[in-house]
Amino acid sequence: MVKKKYLLSFTPAIVNEPITYKMIKEYDLLVNILRAEVSERGGRLLIEVEGKPSQMNKGISFLKDAGVEVRELNEYVNRDEDRCTNCGACLSICPADAFEMDKQTWKVLFKGDRCIACGLCIDTCPPRAMKLRIW
Amino acid sequence: MTRTYEEINEKIKKGDVVVMTAEEVIKVVESQGLESATKEVDVVTTGTFGAMCSSGAFLNFGHSEPPIKMQKVWLNGVPAYTGLAAVDAYIGATELKENGDLDYGGAHVIEELIAGKPVYLRATAYGTDCYPRRSIETYISLKTINQAYLYNPRNAYQNYAVATNSSDTTLFTYMGKLLPNYGNATFSSAGQLSPLLKDPLCRTIGIGTRIFIGGAKGFVAWEGTQYNTTVPTKNGVPLRPGRTLAVIGDMKEMSTEFIRALYFHRYGVSLAVGIGVPIPILDQEVMKFASLSDKDLFAPVLDYSLQSRNRKPLKEVSYAELRSGSIELFGKKVRTSSLSSYYKARVIAEKLKKMIEEGEFLISRPVQPLPEERSFKPLDIRSKEEV
Predict the structure, then answer these.
(1) Is A101 in Cβ contact with B325 (below 8 Å)?
(2) What residues pair up with B220 in beta bridges, in sequence order?
(3) Does the interface predicted TM-score (ipTM) exceed 0.85?
(4) Is B202 labeled as catalytic in the residue annotation?
């Protein structure tokens, strides 16, 4: 089993079709919707997918064939290391525990792989060190 | 045993002074005992780096040709107070840019000046016989202006509240984002590294004490505003916000490593200031306080959804608990966040230690002690007769 995060972009023409549902059903994948947005430009969905690697690849191919733009995301939020003061204001806000205080150095560690791109840390950060990259 | 300021400075000049940070000395006292540690250590260094709203800078721009008596001044669009002499101004850290945004203010101007960046100056005037000019637009930098010094009326608070929120909506405060239903708690003091917690009675800190401020050597100028000695104590240390310092330092010697503009979402702008204070170990009592650790120092937890100055603490928690990542409130684990950087506080205490060891920083005896008794007065609505 592997777990990956993808940003799916739907054109307005296909926004009404249950494409994601079909992918989940057809390829037996576990999907967690982290973020969703529909606008005049179409729809965007940030999902975390868990499943067998072969099924995952087939599922993603299916999405692409259906006209969905698929981008695998490894980094959703990034940190300006110069601006970060390592205060830790982000620690109690992040629902995914993506920030950890290193109790030896008292530096704030950012575990990007845990990030679910909710963006809550962005306006929590007093020196404004966090930037959202996806939307 | 006792030790004098003069003896310590002699040792600094000779290069055989023993300096430890407030963190290091905790372990030494634990392992060797108070008496032996007092004999061994001459100076303990402290540090803190957090939001200190009551900050600002005095600037003297120099005279233009023809001269102007500045009546209104803006720096990068942020108004500065110029009800002083012709080309003097004070820019407050929390003053906002005049465009309706909350996220750029005096703190950013101060940080940009310290970074060596150009800042856009606009001023208007009514014109006088000796100052005929009525307006000016130009760029300034720390290199072009005469003086730029921070004068911060209230910094280095002795202890502070822990903020939480019992309501069912998120609050945006100067203590950061407070999640609903006690979703988190935020705190600000550097605890065992914090200057005034390590010399709680200010036995060695007074007017004229040389300190580290923003990367420069500066001084304690006065008691800070809202200075308060009438608070309950535990282990001899205030359990509530107590004493404060008014501090001063030359911006031209500062670094953005230790001065940083902050923006608290939907609250406004503030300035993170790095301050370090050396504590000369004059005797065993000074050492006893200087070696108190996070588990001996406590802060009150306040519910910031109650919009009243009279809110009572929900409980008192130690800085050791706060720093563990969570505290317990009503049987529930509540995650904690520090708003001040313990990492930077430690860098400051280490840097100050090094400066003293290398003979660059002498200890100063206060010219005058800070008040031993000072109460904290509220502002009530009163008639002329009642005041």
Answers:
(1) yes
(2) B247
(3) yes
(4) no
